[in-house]
Design goal:
The protein is 39% helix and 20% strand. It has 345 residues and is an alpha/beta fold. It folds into four domains: 3-87, Winged helix-like DNA-binding domain superfamily/Winged helix DNA-binding domain (Arc Repressor Mutant, subunit A), CATH 1.10.10; 91-161 and 270-295, D-Maltodextrin-Binding Protein, domain 2 (3-Layer(aba) Sandwich), CATH 3.40.190.10; 164-267, D-Maltodextrin-Binding Protein, domain 2 (3-Layer(aba) Sandwich); 311-340, no CATH class. The strands form three sheets. Strands 3, 4, 5, 6, 7, 8, 9, 10, 11 and 12 form a ten-stranded mixed beta sheet that branches. Helix 7 links the parallel strand 8 (191-194) and strand 9. Helix 1 crosses helix 3. It starts with a helix and ends in a 5-residue tail after the last helix. The relative contact order is 0.11.
Length: 345
């Protein structure tokens, strides 16, 4: 017996106290409505309406049931609404993985977009490498993740990809950091700073293959996962990191230079299990792509000396054009080398 359906019929009759009008309100014929009320009375073993007079009246049982029925039907509506939100990915816990190097501004933007689209969704973020995310997705311990390609696509579905140019991170004072771009062959003799292969095997192998093919065979590969450690190794000299521009902007003493021909592009996209995906997975994939595309910088334009966004410093006693002198301080006065020391890059 569909108790809730019969209760809905009962409530309308109880409000109208007229079977004909109640049938019109429900959009059904009167005989099936009368049969529905009879079924309900049989199920509850009581009479709900006094039909002995010309006017339909509620019995004591009917009056008591009306209050209870309103509560039951309201609870039914709440349950259906909640389940619909869960089905649509607007409620529940959503476990997502993001790469360790994801910038804070990107995380904040992604969480803000998710909160705006699904306020009731409890987003549980985990800092995981691409390899860790692939494994946890396969094991059902993660609902979605942001992966660096290439990755094996077995059992995974992917959101829109975002491609970001990869360039060379070099000390700004290095001769290789002065040109507007570098060729991979120009990096010969340097070590390569890269994330350990197990973190993203596909990307790691792809980078080394492109480097060797274009004339750069690193003396050795120095593993580094933490962005600050990467920047520290670059500043120490003797090594180069091949990363997106966003990482280089964290340290003013490091120059990011595009690679001639643009042979390396880091592709990132959301991924989630192909079978029984979380209802919010596709939404997460779309929002992640929009956030990544908005946060990543546009390809660098040529910068003229007059428009350089960083200060050009000279050794004490040198001025542009080779003339002897002292650089001016921001206040317009010449610095005193003997007082403030030699200014270095």
């Amino acid at each position: 017996m569909d108790l809730l359906r019969h209760l809905r019929h009962f409530v309308v009759v109880a409000r109208e106290l007229h079977f004909g009008r109640a049938a019109e309100t429900l959009g059904m014929a009167q005989p099936p409505l009368s049969q529905s009320i009879r079924r309900l009375e049989q199920e509850l073993a009581v009479e709900l309406f006094d039909r002995s007079r010309r006017q339909v009246r509620l019995t004591t049982a009917g009056q008591l049931l009306l209050g209870e029925a309103d509560d039951l039907l309201a609870a039914d509506r709440r349950i259906r609404h909640l389940m619909r939100q869960v089905r649509d990915g607007a409620l529940g816990v959503f476990r997502a993985g993001v790469p360790p190097e994801t910038p804070a501004v990107t995380l904040r933007a992604l969480l803000d977009r998710l909160a705006a689209e699904a306020p009731g969704l409890d987003v549980d973020l985990h800092e995981l490498t691409s390899a860790e995310q692939v494994r946890m997705l396969a094991e059902g311990r993660l609902d979605a993740g942001l992966l660096h390609h290439p990755v094996a696509d077995g059992g995974l579905r992917f959101g829109p990809p975002v491609d970001v140019p990869v360039g060379a991170l070099l000390p700004r004072a290095s001769p290789l950091g002065r040109p507007r771009q570098v060729a991979l062959a120009d990096l010969a003799g340097l070590d390569l700073i890269a994330a350990p292969r197990p973190t993203a095997p596909g990307w790691h192998d792809h980078v080394l293959d492109v480097c060797r093919r274009l004339g750069f065979t690193p003396g050795r590969v120095r593993p580094a996962r933490n962005p600050e450690f990467v920047l520290g190794l670059v500043l120490a000299g003797g090594a180069v990191a091949l990363e997106p521009e966003a990482l280089g902007r964290r340290e003013p003493r490091i120059a990011w230079r595009p690679i001639a021909g643009g042979p390396l592009v880091r592709r990132t996209s959301a991924a989630w299990p192909d079978r029984a995906p979380h209802p919010a997975a596709a939404m997460f994939g779309q929002l992640a792509a929009e956030v990544l595309a908005a946060v990543e910088p546009a390809p660098p334009a040529a910068v003229t000396p007059a428009a350089r966004p960083w200060p050009v410093l000279f050794e004490a006693g040198q001025t542009p054009g080779g003339a002897v002198g002292c650089p001016r301080s921001p206040s317009g006065h010449r610095d005193d080398p003997g007082r403030s020391g030699t200014r270095t890059m």
